[in-house]
Design brief:
221 residues; 5 strands; alpha/beta; 5-stranded parallel beta sheet; 57% helix; Rossmann fold
């Protein structure tokens, strides 16, 4: 039985780079690591509908916070069985975004905090009703929103296929989302969190993430 680890953060935070670094560090220790990301664009109908809406298609779909959140949640619902199987077959399953992303962005769009109704709605929908696997550890990659926004703009300039969506273009939304993420981490929403910011040693972080899981197991015995 492996462990499920998620990486969270605003758009442009560097989650993909961090997940790649953690994967290499764990593989160097002889662990079997599987890495995947949400939303599963190009694989999930629900994710693709959400992406299209965020680029101006499907009428006023993107204006509905709960409709968009439901599409992202349904993407994870469809992947839940495979996720459980992958956790059973690998030492580590590492996810770039998960349910906390849905909670943070939904709350931020409604100008709510982590204690608000939107966050609880996402938790109840995804973990209770859809029964998606609960992450063992959630890693929040905290970077200044301005830095993350510049990275997103740079990606768009260098690759036409990486055109920023409605969320990525809204810097105010990104600031509010970052605040909700901080609150989710402080509240240990759903499961334990690790907050990463500034410069850090990837190998040490990889060890810290696994150690946190071991400590959690010892506490619950």
């Amino acid at each position: 039985m492996g462990i499920l680890i998620t990486i969270e953060g605003v758009d442009g935070a560097g989650k993909h780079t961090l997940s790649r670094g953690l994967t290499l560090a764990w593989e160097a220790e002889g662990l079997d690591v599987l890495r995947m990301g949400f939303p599963r664009y190009g694989e999930s109908l629900h994710a693709d509908l959400a992406a299209e809406a965020l680029h101006g298609e499907h009428g006023d779909l993107s204006s509905s916070v709960f409709a968009m959140a439901a599409l992202f949640a349904l993407d994870r619902h469809d992947a839940a069985r495979d996720l459980r199987r992958l956790v059973n077959r690998n030492d580590v399953v590492l996810l770039d975004r998960y349910a906390a992303s849905n909670a943070a962005y939904s709350a931020a769009r409604l100008n709510e905090g982590a204690e608000g109704a939107a966050v609880e709605w996402v938790r109840a929908l995804e973990f209770d009703r859809f029964a998606i696997p609960v992450p063992d550890v959630q890693v929040l990659l905290r970077v200044p929103v301005e830095v993350a926004a510049e990275r997103a703009r740079s990606r768009e300039e260098q690759d036409a296929s990486r055109e920023r969506d409605t969320y990525e273009r809204d810097e105010s939304l990104q600031h509010r989302t970052a605040q909700v993420y901080d609150e989710l981490a402080a509240r240990s929403w759903v499961s334990p969190w690790l907050v990463v910011e500034g410069s850090f040693d990837v190998a040490q972080l990889a060890a810290n993430v696994l150690n946190q899981r071991v400590e959690q197991q010892e506490v619950t015995r």
